[in-house]
Specification:
single chain; about 240 residues; alpha+beta; 5 helices; about 30% helix; about 35% strand
Length: about 240
């Protein structure tokens, strides 16, 4: 059986993860959101762990009261394809019987690129607090270009390093490149939803001070759209015997 554990967030920089995936669902209402999480937990705790190539699986409830984020860490894409072929439909069918009419919006296959620790960790101690909110920043470009994906993330790193007043409450940002070359997904950890909302309301356009470096990030050539969604961890499980390695 999977190792369920206290709601300790997975490590986006976990070694051995070759294929981190993001999947987005719309379930409609807070009541259906809670019911879907309960159904997912029942399915995943009631069945054996699907296969060794899945290292961890976590579900997050959107603070909008209607969406879910599924964040799964796979050893490689072949492990995911084996899961789809043999087991995914059976698990989804059980969830759908409990909560009919789920809209499955999007699946983003990614590779982990790099992460940044944020100076405004919310407590001034230098110790990494457990996140109270995960913010997904989903950036889309006008076509596939892996070099551009990496260059944009590197520009974010420069903007963070040179920010004279980093936002309070930011813990870390973990940047994933979509395998089709068109998107970057930032899995950003914050101490709370309110901390992120306060950072957005501060001076500047979005999170970050009004510096030339942040202006370059927001006006990067080929950048089409940047979507922001906030989540709280609702369920997490990992491969038995992995010890979080």
């Amino acid at each position: 059986m999977p190792e369920t554990r206290p709601l300790t967030h997975p490590d986006p920089a976990r070694p051995g993860v070759g294929a981190p995936f993001f999947s987005f669902w719309d379930v409609g209402t807070p009541e259906r959101q809670r019911a879907a999480v309960a159904a997912i937990e029942a399915v995943w705790t009631g069945r054996p762990w699907p296969l060794p190539g899945l290292l961890s699986y976590s579900v997050y409830a959107g603070t909008d009261g209607r969406t879910l984020l599924h964040y799964s860490q796979w050893a490689d894409e072949r492990a995911y394809e084996d899961f789809v072929r043999d087991q995914r439909a059976h698990r989804n069918d059980e969830v759908d019987r409990a909560v009919p009419g789920i809209e499955r919006l999007d699946l983003v296959r990614t590779r982990y690129y790099r992460g940044f620790g944020l100076p405004g960790d919310g407590n001034g101690s230098g110790e990494r607090p457990e996140p109270g909110c995960v913010v997904i920043v989903d950036v889309t470009f006008d076509g596939p270009d892996e070099a551009r994906q990496r260059a944009w993330v590197d520009a974010v790193g420069e903007a963070l390093d040179t920010d004279p007043a980093p936002p309070a409450g930011g813990i870390s940002g973990h940047f994933h490149l979509s395998t089709d070359g068109t998107r970057v997904v930032n899995y950003a950890e914050w101490v709370s939803e309110q901390a992120h909302l306060d950072a957005l309301a501060a001076a500047g356009e979005g999170v970050g001070s009004p510096t030339p470096q942040w202006h370059r990030v927001r006006n990067f050539p080929g950048l089409v759209r940047s979507d922001v969604r906030r989540y709280r961890l609702a369920f997490t499980a990992e491969r038995p015997g992995s010890g979080g390695e």
